[in-house]
Amino acid sequence: MSTVIDNAKAAFTDINLMHLQDIVETICNHALARAYPPFPSRKKLELEELLHDSTFVERFRVGLMQGAAYLLAASDERVLAVYRVGNPGVPTRVKTNTAEAAKTHLLILVSNRSAALNALAIALDQALIREVGKLSPKLQHEQKSLLNPIFITEADVVQNKGYAMLLSAALAPPLTIWQRDDT
């Protein structure tokens, strides 16, 4: 099954909603494995307690972003790069609103916009919300968007227009999560 929108063929032929939830479960499990503290004594902490640890949440967030970026890029060759926008680095062990702390902002550079890619990003975001909600039900109810995907085009970057201006920010440039080799 492939989708044609605006005379552009989308490459995500093997993904349906059932597969997407399985993929998201894997993304979430890998992100959790990456987020757990490297020290054996800290691994014994309960997940609910770790969700209040900003270092754990930050590592988990990066893992989710990487998984989402890889899925989007593998699904559509129009994806050129994925960046993280935001303010990382809340001091460790500070009690935070875990729902807001888990929210990320993905800036997705594409060769051209695609309704199909946007639909995939929204479906991925919703699937991640459901999966993260299994870790802490409070997170699911407080989230409208976990990734907040923002699409920009190469033309936006050249014109330094809208969110594309963030790519040239001097004080807080976005973190590159994934980039196509030929970009």
Structural features, described:
By secondary structure, this protein is α+β, with helices and mostly antiparallel strands. The chain has one domain (14-89, 96-179). 47% of the residues lie in helices and 13% in strands. It is built from eight helices and six strands; from the N terminus they run E-E-H-H-H-H-E-H-E-H-H-E-H-E. A four-stranded mixed sheet has the order 5-4-3-6. The chain has a two-stranded antiparallel sheet with strand order 1-2. Strand 1 (4-5) and strand 2 form a beta hairpin. The chain is globular. The chain starts with a strand and ends with a strand. Mean pLDDT is 80; it is low at 1-13 and 89-96.
Topology:
Blueprint (H helix, E strand, L loop, with lengths): L3 E2 L2 E2 L7 H19 L4 H4 L3 H4 L3 H22 L3 E6 L13 H5 L3 E5 L4 H21 L1 H6 L7 E4 H5 L16 E5 L4
Parallel strand pairs: 4-5
Antiparallel strand pairs: 1-2, 3-4, 3-6
Helix pairs in contact: 1-4, 1-6, 4-6
What characteristics describe this protein?
183 residues, alpha+beta, two-stranded antiparallel sheet, disordered N terminus
| Helix and strand run | EEHHHHEHEHHEHE
Cα-atom radius of gyration: 17 Å
β-strand percent reads 5-15%
Total beta strand runs: 6
The neighbouring-strand order within the major sheet is 5-4-3-6
> Count of helices?
8
**Secondary structure category:** alpha+beta
Describe the main β-sheet briefly: 4 strands, mixed
| Overall spatial form | globular
- Poorly predicted regions: 1-13, 89-96
